[in-house]
Automatic annotation (TrEMBL):
The lineage of its organism: Bacteria, Bacillati, Bacillota, Bacilli, Bacillales. The keyword Thylakoid does not apply. This is Tryptophan transporter. It holds the Pfam family TrpP. It comes from the Bacteria. It comes from Fictibacillus marinisediminis. The chain crosses the membrane at residues 6-27, 39-65, 77-94, 101-127, 133-156. InterPro entries: TrpP. Keywords: Membrane, Transmembrane, Transmembrane helix. The keyword Transmembrane helix applies. Coiled coil: none annotated.
Length: 176
C-alpha cells in the first residue's frame, strides 16, 4: 500500500465520518450511512486488496463507534468488510468495460443495498430490530442507496480528476 493512496484513503474516510456524523435520522432514529460512499470511492480509486481491507476495517470501526442503532456496533464490524469485498468484486468486473460517473453511481447503489441487507440481517440476529426488516429496508436502506448514488455521481468526476493528477501514469495503481 503506497503512502499516497493511504493518505487519500484517510482523507476520504475522514470526510465520510463528517458526513455520517451530520446526517439527520430518517426513520426510528436511524440515519443513512454516508461513510459507504467514501468507502466505495476509496475502492474505486485504489482497488488493491490491501487498501480495500484497511479501508473496510477503518470504516467498520468508525461506524461502529458512531452508530446509534441497537446492536449496530457488531453489525457494522461484520457488514463493512464483507460489503467492501463484494463491491471490489463488482468493481473489477465492471471496470473491464467502461467506468464513468454513472457506472460508479450504479455500483454505489448496489453496494449500499448489499451493505444495508448485511447490516440489518446481522443486527436482527444480534439485538433484534426496532421494526420489521422490510420497513427498515424500505425506509432507511433504499433512501440511503439513492442518496449515496447521487453523491457518488457528483463526487466521482472530481475524485477521478484528482487521482489522475496525483498518481503518475507509469504507476501500477494508475492502470486499474
Amino acid at each position: 500500500m503506497k503512502t499516497k493512496s493511504l493518505a487519500l484513503t484517510g482523507v476520504l474516510l475522514a470526510l465520510g465520518y463528517v458526513l455520517h456524523a451530520i446526517m439527520p435520522p430518517f426513520f426510528l432514529g436511524m440515519r443513512p450511512d454516508m461513510m459507504l460512499t467514501m468507502l466505495f470511492l476509496t475502492i474505486i480509486m485504489f482497488p488493491s486488496l490491501s487498501n480495500v481491507i484497511v479501508a473496510a476495517l477503518a470504516t467498520g470501526v468508525i461506524t461502529a463507534i458512531t452508530t446509534t442503532f441497537p446492536g449496530g456496533q457488531i453489525a457494522n464490524l461484520v457488514d463493512k468488510p464483507i460489503t467492501a469485498l463484494v463491491f471490489l468484486g463488482l468493481f473489477l468486473l465492471v471496470s473491464r468495460f467502461k467506468l464513468n460517473a454513472l457506472t460508479a453511481a450504479i455500483l454505489t447503489f448496489a453496494g449500499t443495498i448489499v451493505s444495508g441487507s448485511i447490516f440489518l440481517g446481522t443486527a436482527l440476529l444480534v439485538a433484534g430490530l426496532p421494526g420489521t426488516f422490510l420497513s427498515i429496508f424500505l425506509a432507511v436502506v433504499l433512501p440511503t442507496a439513492a442518496v449515496n448514488c447521487v453523491v457518488m455521481f457528483v463526487l466521482y468526476p472530481v475524485a477521478h480528476s484528482i487521482r489522475k493528477r496525483s498518481i503518475p501514469p507509469q504507476s501500477k495503481e494508475a492502470q486499474v
